[in-house]
Amino acid sequence: MAPVPESAARVFGDGLEGAERFAALLERHGVERGLIGPREVDRLWDRHLLNSAVIGERIPHGARVVDVGSGAGLPGIPLAIARPDLHLMLVEPMARRVDWLDEVIEELDLDVSVLRGRAEEKAIRAEIGTVDVVTARAVAPLAKLAGWCLPLLREGGMMLALKGASARDEVARDMSAVARVGGGEPTVSECGVDLLETPTTVVIVERIRPQASAQQRRRRSAVGVRSKRTG
Asked: Is 116 among the annotated ligand-binding positions?
């Protein structure tokens, strides 16, 4: 197993033992169950556990958090270990991954719930209601992700999308699409700057208004057409 970085103790605090157990579970079962690629085993800590946990820097104490497309439990499980004050729900559509998440939660004795389904489904949205924070890691391009995640947020809540080097390009490309579904201007931030060799890049989007209905969009479009005719 890859050695535990010194920064892990600072990130996970009292939860370090739990983080080590999660890393061991991923190392033992992650590849055979299709949760991580073979090359990821040697970089579980920096690329996955610490990369996920440090986004807690951006999350208020006691927040209600939904992790969309949780997969192997990233970023949700490391976040739950590092921040036991959070109220976390993991949303995942694939049954075998839901089984994995349930096993991990039981093994690590975490106060986390798992919901099988997709964030865009009406039944899932109804069950979740609205929360303070939605997280997502390697799930979808920003425009599509905003359409799935922002409806789960209360007004003033925020989406934290873990992205790579192309984050700023995605923001420039998808800014108008994010606005159409009720998001404010996306900002690119880094987490774990003093802790990780490569900080985690996060795109932050605040929900500033409800998503416009199809009828409202048609009405706005009609107004725009009339304005052009009379201009």
From this structure: no
